[in-house]
Amino acid sequence: MQAMILAAGFGTRLLPHTLLRPKPLFPILNTPLLLLTIRRLQNVGCDHIVVNCHHLREQIVATLAGLPGVVVLEEEILLGTGGGLRGALACLRDEPLLVTNGDIYHSIDFAALYSDHCGNRAKVSLAVHDYPRFNTVQVAGQRVLGFANDAVSPCLAFTGLHVIEPEILQDITPKKFSCILDLYKNMLAEGQEIAALPVDGSYWTDMGTPGDYLELHAGLLKGSIPRWPEMVDLAENPFLIAPGARVADDLALEDWCCLGDVEVGHDVQLCRIVAWDNVKIEAGSRRADTLLSA
C-alpha cells in the first residue's frame, strides 16, 4: 500500500507562525502532525510514503531523515497539488495511491477508504462529507458531478483525502504549477467517473487558522475529539507539559494547556494555551487563548 502526503504549502492563514515552521510540522500534543500522519499510515499497512515539500522544506527534510519507507521530494518552486503529484509519478508503484493533505487531523479510516476505492471501477475516489464551510463538490449518490456549488445539486466538502490510479497523473504537465481539481474537472468533462466516498460522522479539521489549531487541542485534551492511537497517552489529563520543560513550581494552569519544552518563570497563569518548544514565558505573565510559537 502506498500513500503521498502533500506538505508543500505556505499556510498563509497561520502567519506569523508559519514563518517559523511549515504547517505540517505544527505539533499536535507536542508531536509534529506530519510524523503522526506517517505513523498512522504505516500502522494501516502503507510501506511506501512520498512527502513533497517546499516552504521551509529543510525542516521537513531534517524531520523525516532516515525514516524507513519514506521518500521526500523537495520542490524548488511550488507546484500545487497537481504539480506535486505529477512530480512524484516516477517514485510511485503501479497500484492505487492514497493521497492526503499534510495539514489535516481527522478520524477517517485510511484502510477503509483505500479498500472502498479498490472495490469500485473509478480511477479517482474522493472522501467527502457535509461541512458547510467547504461544501463545493456536487454529488449524486456515490458519484462526483462537478466542483462548483450551483445551489441546485447536493454539495459536500472534499476532505483532502483521495485514492487515485497513478496513471491519471500522466495528463498533468510536469514541473508546472497546477491544482489536482483541474485534472478532475477535465476527467468529468470527458465522461470519466469519479467516485464520492462519504465519510460523514468522522471528525475532521484542516487547522487552517490559529483558532482552529487551538480548538483542536482543546478537544483532544478534554476528550471531545478522538485521539489517534499514535499519540501520547494523556490519561484524561487536560494539561500536557513536555518532559523537558523548565517550569516554576507556582505555575497556575486553567481549563487546558499544552506546553512543549518551554521555560516558564514564577507567578505565571496560563489558560487555553499552546506553547511550542523553546518558548520563554516571563515571570508574572497572564496569557489566555493563544498560540505561543516564539
Give your account of this protein's structure.
By secondary structure, this protein is an alpha/beta fold. It folds into 2 domains: 202 residues, Spore Coat Polysaccharide Biosynthesis Protein SpsA, Chain A (Alpha-Beta Complex), CATH 3.90.550; 83 residues, no CATH class. The chain has 6 helices and 20 strands. The strands form 5 sheets. Strands 1, 4, 5, 6, 8, 9, 10, 11 and 12 form a 9-stranded mixed sheet that branches. β2 and β3 form a beta hairpin. α3 crosses α5. The longest helix is centred in the C-terminal third of the chain and has 13 residues. The two termini are 39 Å apart. The mean pLDDT is 95.
Summary, kept brief:
This protein is 20% helix and 31% strand. It contains six helices and 20 strands.
How is this fold's topology laid out?
Blueprint: E1 2-6, E2 27-28, E3 31-32, H1 33-43, E4 48-53, H2 57-64, E5 70-74, H3 80-87, E6 97-101, E7 105-106, H4 110-118, E8 124-129, E9 135-140, E10 143-146, E11 155-164, H5 180-189, E12 194-198, E13 204-205, H6 210-222, E14 239-241, E15 246-247, E16 252-259, E17 263-264, E18 269-275, E19 280-281, E20 286-292
Parallel strand pairs: 1-4, 1-6, 4-5, 8-12, 14-16, 15-17, 16-18, 17-19, 18-20
Antiparallel strand pairs: 2-3, 6-11, 7-13, 8-11, 9-10, 9-11
Helix pairs in contact: 3-5
